Amino acid sequence: MSSIVIGLWANRYVGNLSDYLVAGRKLRLRLALATMTGTELGLVTVMYMAELGFMKQYASLYLAFLEAGAVLLIGITGFVVYRLRASSIMTIPEYYEKRYSSHVRIVGATVMVVSGVLNMGLFLKAGSQFVTAISGMQDEMSLKLIMTGLLLLVLFYTVLGGMVSVVITDLIQFLILGTGMVIVTGVVFWSIGWEGFSAIVTTQNGYFNPFDSHNPSGKGPGIGWLEIIQMTVVIGSAAMLWPTSAARTLSCQSAEVAQKLYTLSSVSFLARRALPVFWGIGTFAFFASQPALFAEFEEAVKTNASITSLSAMPLFLAKVVPTGLLGLVTAGMIAAFMSTHDSYLLCWSGVITQDIVAPLAGPMSQRSRILITRIAIFIIGAMLLTWGLWYEVSSDLWGYLAVTGTVYLSGAIPTVVGGLYWKRGSQAGALAAILGGLLGLSAMGPCVGYINEKFSLGVNGTHLTLITFAFSIILYIAVSIIFPDKAPQTETVETSTFS
């Protein structure tokens, strides 16, 4: 109910598209930090990191340190983010036009939306699996009804208030979520104890070394060097250019604030991955100490479509969290669900309006742009509901997110970084790199299976993700050299602290 009231109230302060998409570029550091954390610490993050902790135990902690290090490095150097904010753009594709051409903007925005909506496609399902598992409702109809209800709630206040309502609700949800995460972490450690966490390594055949491609626990594939390289590339790219994070950067009141935002966010980014991993590790310790219960859970995964490895953590919490606190924890997780969905819906709908419809349709009033953005939010919501209901993940959820994100990131990295720091980058090179990112679709589960069957190959999503990044970078450099722009492109923005 409070989210609906906020949406109605925030609607009064939406006068133009800048207010609607980037909150008028007025975010100060503290509020920007809260909304950045609220957005990136969503329920889907909690679910996939806990799933990794359950399947790969301590080895999965490498992702937390990898991301925190990448965000801190960006904050210290100002690499990319400083110059993007100084250019006064509202979206990444807007930079494409400023540096290259309107054609690059439209094509880049289209690929971004395809990647983003696919990436977001299973957020709804993951969140609803948490609610159904922790509440004991395991039938598929309950899952569908919860998915629909949660989505409608987020759609309502996001459509009304845009970024203003998103920032305000993110702040409130950040406070609720923070409280819930502290409680859950304390309960998990109290329930399992230090001996229980130690037993994972000493007696329960747990997975400890991420550089080892063999997972001794047998609950999922190992990690190994190749996957670590893949995740370094994906996470490093996403830290700079993932659109929802970039929206916070572009909403800051100055480039200096945007840079400081990244430096301080490194701590919250470390926590957003590390704490849920410990919940997943505690889940593994709980089930491993009770073989009969573990066997029952694994049988349920095989026979009940609504129960997957994602369900393990909420089922564990339902058993160990006292009833009185369980409601608060559930509220915190629902807050996390909402704080991610509202930002993602606004981000992709804004790109559709600002970077696809407007350049194609010509001059449009602010009222028309806001209306189209609101319609796009509802259309994306319907697509998410449909995709979440029928698509089945063939690997862990994080693997799916990394692959779908590659479709956009692999082309965006050479296009943006090359545009900011290499004067010879051309329009043709940018288009080639962006379209080259579509090769990342081949790394999705069904496509990998088809490729291996058709061509008798032994590739997986990791191989194809790295190939896609390399392919787009090579295309950008080679095509820019072969087909240079008639006049050199320059950027007249403030100098980054990165040298």
TrEMBL record:
Residues 402-499 form the Lumazine-binding domain. GO terms for molecular function: symporter activity. GO terms for biological process: carboxylic acid transport; sodium ion transport. InterPro entries: Lumazine-bd_dom, Na/Glc_symporter_sf, Na/solute_symporter, Na/solute_symporter_CS, Sodium:Solute_Symporter. The keyword Ion transport applies. It is a multi-pass membrane protein. It catalyses: L-proline(in) + Na(+)(in) = L-proline(out) + Na(+)(out). Belongs to the sodium:solute symporter (SSF) (TC 2.A.21) family. This is Sodium/glucose cotransporter. Pfam families: SSF. Its main location: membrane. The chain crosses the membrane at residues 29-49, 61-84, 104-124, 145-168, 174-201, 222-242, 277-295, 316-337, 371-391, 397-422, 429-451, 463-483.
